[in-house]
Design brief:
The protein contains 5 helices and 24 strands. The chain is of the alpha+beta class. The strands form 2 sheets. It has a 22-stranded mixed β-sheet that branches. A two-stranded parallel sheet has the order 5-8. A hairpin with a 2-residue loop joins strand 23 (about 405-415) and strand 24 (about 415-425). The longest helix has about 30 residues, at about 10-40. The relative contact order is 0.05.
């Protein structure tokens, strides 16, 4: 029996079969891609890793996370990264770590970044950082590797920035308990924020709470701040209400403030005394290679009783030790200081002085002082805490101050006797261990 030949497809039927085959294959491929996408999107660590890799590559940094990550795609997409570590490739010390980082980024920004086209501004809804720790030395080492003159793009934060329990680590000092609340940020708009924290150097701390404003978020913007701070040492405290201003500076000599101005209403509390005074400082403020400096420095002090009034100029620096030099004039002998013998006490001449201090930031080290009135000269070395204790007990204690020094005067009248060519030596063992 002869085989019945299979019917042949018409060209139209063959095209239809191929279209069905291609459609089935495409559907299967789309289904597979969708399944893989769902698998990938259910792994937030892969999303976070991809984003951190891209950001790190753009900045020349290694950015990793060790904690569980999460994100949501409802409304404005949000990404949470835990255990963030940012370091310069090959460096042992991270420049930034954070317990938690949260970013909320609009779809429009994600599409622009994803397409590689960029945008006129980089809009982010909100950024939050919990327990971030910034190492300034590591940050500066990374900055030194960056090409000069690169464009710095300022993002727009429509719902602001929050930093909680932050820490900044310098050389021999730190700022802990750092908190920042920034309601919003835009490249060409004024910026206002609340900043709190605690400066720590050895056993000296300075809790502070400031309102801070910038004319715009740029490296040459004007800055202003006002608020409260308290210098706390084991021996004394100094609460302050302060205002400061300046213009941001970033150059080869470090970063800081040009035209820096600081004024404060203060009180010294120690040894049972409360001494109110007002002071002001002015000059270019710099931080470079772990060292703070103001040089040249202008200084003004106004007080009552034990606190003298003076105007001075000089310089100030602080790294491991505080170094301060002031060359100025005390307007008049303070009324609460011991009475000077005639003719010194009868003169109303101002008292030019030179003060040199190098020691701990709590002013417990030895201070050198050169003081003149008319033809009388006084050169001394003393410890400020001991002088303050002596002044506090002056009514019942010794009339001789605890200092080393020399007083040279052409004439003094003491207990009715007139002394010519007077030279008095004081020896209290200031430099003794």
């Amino acid at each position: 029996m002869a085989a019945t030949p299979e019917p042949t497809e018409s060209p139209r039927q063959e095209r239809r079969r191929w279209r069905r085959t291609i459609a089935k294959g495409a559907g299967a491929a789309l289904l597979l891609m969708f399944a893989l996408s769902l698998h990938w999107m259910t792994r937030p660590s892969q999303v976070a890793g991809l984003i951190l890799d891209r950001v790190g590559a753009a900045l020349g940094l290694e950015i990793t996370s060790s904690g569980a990550s999460e994100y949501n795609l409802r409304g404005t997409p949000g990404l949470v990264v835990r255990g963030l570590v940012v370091r310069q490739p090959g460096a042992g010390t991270p420049l930034l770590t954070a317990g938690r980082v949260y970013l909320s980024v609009p779809w429009a920004t994600l599409r622009a970044v994803g397409s590689g086209g960029g945008a006129a501004d980089l809009t982010v809804r909100r950024v939050e950082l919990d327990a971030p720790r910034l190492d300034l030395a590591a940050l500066q080492r990374w900055q030194d590797t960056r090409p000069p003159g690169g464009e710095i793009r300022i993002p727009t934060l429509t719902d602001g920035l929050r930093i909680a329990r932050g820490e900044v680590v310098g050389e021999g000092w730190s700022i802990d308990r750092l908190g920042v609340e920034l309601p919003s940020l835009a490249p060409d708009a004024k910026l206002a924020a609340r900043v709190g924290g605690r400066f720590v150097n050895g056993d000296t701390t300075v809790p502070l709470d400031l309102q801070v404003a910038l004319t715009r978020p740029s490296l040459d913007a004007g800055l202003g701040a006002a608020g409260i701070a308290t210098v706390v040492t084991p021996e004394w405290r100094m609460p302050m209400r302060l205002r400061l201003s300046g213009r941001l500076h970033d150059g080869d000599d470090g970063f800081g403030l040009d035209d820096f101005r600081l004024g404060a209403n203060s009180r010294y509390l120690g040894g049972g005394q409360e001494l109110p005074f007002v002071y002001g400082l002015a000059g270019p403020l710099r931080y470079h290679d772990g060292r703070f400096a103001i040089a040249p420095l202008g200084a003004v002090l106004r007080g009552d009783g034990l606190i003298p009034d003076f105007n001075a100029h000089g310089r100030l620096s602080w790294q491991h030790l505080l170094a301060l030099r002031l060359d100025g004039v005390i307007q008049q002998w303070p009324s609460a200081w011991p009475t000077l013998p005639p003719p010194l006490g009868q003169s109303d001449s101002p008292l030019p002085f030179v003060l040199d201090y190098r020691g701990a930031a709590n002013l417990s080290g030895a201070t050198a002082l050169r003081l003149r009135r008319d033809a009388t000269r006084f050169d001394a070395r003393f410890h400020l805490p001991r002088i303050l204790d002596w002044l506090d007990q002056l009514a019942t204690g010794t009339p001789l101050p605890p200092l080393d020094g020399t007083l040279v005067a052409p004439r003094l009248e003491i207990s009715g006797a007139t002394l010519e060519g007077v030279e008095i030596e004081f020896d209290d063992g200031v430099d003794a261990p």
